[in-house]
């Protein structure tokens, strides 16, 4: 008996990435700077906000603002529902197992401090070690330094090579019987390097060591699955993911969060209080003392809806295209050197120009409407590794275009002509 192969069903066509339509969602991109169109390339510092986010925050104050988790009246119930919905959106965004594993904080920095001061204080003692990498933002260095100083422990650092990559074999050798926690960036804010977090997590877990991942730069640029990565803790900030400032996320595996003491005391993190004893609330509320940024949290949910509606895979592909285009064009500029040439990079591009200080580059580019970041990018150890006081940094977002890359390159040529 013979069979006839049937043709495979046609794939559902994927809509083209319509950057022009996306740009219309961001009112600020219509701004003119010194008479020139704004070219916003400082997304690693903070991303601009779409109308959906701006409208969501305004709607809270105009239609349903009240304190949450504490009232039985209509406004409080609706505000609570919207805030809790943002937590569930965050759970889906990270593919966390449970909503109670999502703790709302003020930003990535507070998330690092929370884990350092709770998990760290209860697990790190004299002679122990905390392992980080040479690519870290100050926010993923200083809290661990403070912990190590207090607990008489040691901060170990996995070095980076000339390309701005962490050698995983060296990282593995630095995992010792004294290592109590690992804390690494998912994506370097200074160089754009994407770290091999999944492999690092595997190596740490083989030794029974938990890993904290600073995802502040990753979540706007790539899909993140905390369970697939093997992250025990993962943190990111709303404002870099096209949401409001003052809102951030700490993901933690429930079994770890359950054992950690509260970070702050006050309202909403308690179950009962007497002068003799306080009983703490269940997760995640145990770590959320006081009135939160209610409107910001709800608008953050709108930001997650926005980026997931476009698709993180599509955003990543778009930004990769911009990064490749910009890298090729900048490397062709006489006297310009790209700092950080890792094989795995995302939309962050640091560079220096012979004979021109980065701050002067930034000033001239600003007069041409091009907004970039100059300085040490809160990553002074990275700058020290390259013997540089600072770099100029262009960082891309989902609304940037190839025409804006050309505007960046043209403004750089103007800066070189001016200073040479």
Q: Any overview of this molecule?
A:
- The chain has 420 residues and is an alpha/beta fold.
- It has two domains: 19-45 and 312-419, Aspartate Aminotransferase, domain 1, CATH 3.90.1150.10; 53-309, Aspartate Aminotransferase, domain 2, CATH 3.40.640.10.
- The protein contains 14 helices and 17 strands.
- The chain has helices spanning 19-24, 51-64, 74-94, 108-123, 142-151, 168-173, 197-206, 226-229, 254-259, 294-310, 312-331, 358-367, 380-385, 402-419; strands at 32-33, 36-37, 39-40, 102-105, 129-133, 154-158, 179-185, 211-214, 233-237, 248-252, 270-273, 278-280, 336-339, 348-353, 370-371, 373-375, 391-395.
- A seven-stranded mixed beta sheet has the order 4-10-9-8-7-5-6, sandwiched between helices. A four-stranded antiparallel beta sheet has the order 13-14-17-16, covered by helices on one side. A two-stranded antiparallel ribbon has the order 1-2.
- A hairpin with a 2-residue loop joins strand 1 (32-33) and strand 2.
- Helix 2 runs antiparallel to helix 10 and helix 11 (312-331) packs parallel to helix 14.
- The longest helix has 21 residues, at 74-94.
- The radius of gyration is 23 Å and the shape is globular.
- The protein starts with 18 loop residues before the first helix and ends with a helix.
- Residues 1-12 have low confidence and may be disordered.
- What's the Cα radius of gyration? 23 Å
Number of strand segments: 17
Total number of helices = 14
Shape estimate = globular
Order of adjacent strands in the largest pleated sheet: 4-10-9-8-7-5-6
Predict the CATH topology of the largest domain: Aspartate Aminotransferase, domain 2
The CATH superfamily of the largest domain turns out to be Type I PLP-dependent aspartate aminotransferase-like (Major domain)
Biggest sheet details: 7 strands, mixed
- How many domains? 2
């Amino acid at each position: 008996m013979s069979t006839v192969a049937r043709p495979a069903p046609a794939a559902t066509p994927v809509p083209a990435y319509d950057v022009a339509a996306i740009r219309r969602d961001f009112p600020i991109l219509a701004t003119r700077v010194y008479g020139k169109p704004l070219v916003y390339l400082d997304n690693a510092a903070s991303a601009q906000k779409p109308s959906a986010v701006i409208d969501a925050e305004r709607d809270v104050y105009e239609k349903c603002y009240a304190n949450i988790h504490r009232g039985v009246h209509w406004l409080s119930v609706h505000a609570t529902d919207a805030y809790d919905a943002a937590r569930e959106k965050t759970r889906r965004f990270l593919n966390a197992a449970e909503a109670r594993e999502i703790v709302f904080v003020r930003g990535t920095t507070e998330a690092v401090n929370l884990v350092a001061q709770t998990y760290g204080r209860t697990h790190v003692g004299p002679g122990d070690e905390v392992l980080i990498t040479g690519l870290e933002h100050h926010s993923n260095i200083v809290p661990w330094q403070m912990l190590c100083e207090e607990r008489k422990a040691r901060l170990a650092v996995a070095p980076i090579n000339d390309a701005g990559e962490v050698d995983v074999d060296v990282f593995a050798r630095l995992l010792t019987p004294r290592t109590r926690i690992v804390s690494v960036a998912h994506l370097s804010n200074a160089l754009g390097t994407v770290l091999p977090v999944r492999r690092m997590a595997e190596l740490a877990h083989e030794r029974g060591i938990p890993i904290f991942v600073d995802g502040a730069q990753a979540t706007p640029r790539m899909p993140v699955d905390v369970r697939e990565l093997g992250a025990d803790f993962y943190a990111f900030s709303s404002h870099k993911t096209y949401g409001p400032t003052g809102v951030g996320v700490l993901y933690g595996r429930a079994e770890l969060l359950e054992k950690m003491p509260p970070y702050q005391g006050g309202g909403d993190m308690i179950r009962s209080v007497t002068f003799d004893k306080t009983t703490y609330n269940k997760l995640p509320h145990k770590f959320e003392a006081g009135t939160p940024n209610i409107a910001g949290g709800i608008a953050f949910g709108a930001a997650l809806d926005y980026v997931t509606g476009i698709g993180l895979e599509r955003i990543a592909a778009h930004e990769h295209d911009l990064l490749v285009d910009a890298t090729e064009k900048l490397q062709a500029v006489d006297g310009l050197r790209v700092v950080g040439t890792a094989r795995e990079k995302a939309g962050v591009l640091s560079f220096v120009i012979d004979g021109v200080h980065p701050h002067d580059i930034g000033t001239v580019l600003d007069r041409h409407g091009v907004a970039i970041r100059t300085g040490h990018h809160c990553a002074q150890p990275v700058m020290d590794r390259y013997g540089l006081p600072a770099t100029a940094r262009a960082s891309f977002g989902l609304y940037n275009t190839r025409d804006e890359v050309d505007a960046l390159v043209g403004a750089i040529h103007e800066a070189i002509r001016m200073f040479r």
